[in-house]
Amino acid sequence: MSSLLKMLPIAVIGFVAYQNSTALKKGLDVVSKVQTTLASVEINNIARAIRIDYEDSHRLPLDNFSQFLKQNMVEASGKSTRDHSRDSWGTPYRLQQTATGFAILSAGPDKVWETADDIRQEFTLDN
Asked: For the chain, is the Cβ count within 10 Å smaller at the N or the C terminus?
């Protein structure tokens, strides 16, 4: 009997999760949309830092992009509380040179490159 009582909380949690699965899915969708929006905002901030650096160096930090982000992306408080070389899902950002400037890429929520949820934003550079 005591083993049945021990399993009761697990069964209740499973039942509650099953009954609320639609609400849980909607909540997870909202979290994913917020993370996607935050990644887009961060990409714009990264682009700003790249443009500032480009004005001085006239080159993109293609070879050392991860290190560039770690050194140049700091919160407004002046502290760094996370690795800014990675997107909201923990995947490293990528930088690509384009004909008119550069593109910053994120693998998106699925953390897999070259899938439908990837985020790619292109920016132009004045020469």
From this structure: N
CB atoms inside a 10 Å sphere around CB 42? 19
| Distance in angstroms (rounded) separating the CA atoms of residues 37 and 88 | 10
pTM of this prediction? Answer: 0.71
Domain borders along the chain are 2-124
Match 């132009």 to its residue by tokens. 124
Q: Are residues 89 and 119 in contact, defined by beta-carbon separation less than 8 angstroms?
A: no
Residue 95: predicted pLDDT? 97
pLDDT beyond 80 at 24: no
Output the average pLDDT for the chain.
83
As a whole number of angstroms, the distance between CA 86 and CA 65 comes to 11
- CA-nearest of 29, 37, 35, 49 to 111 is 35
CATH of domain 2-124: 3.30.700.10
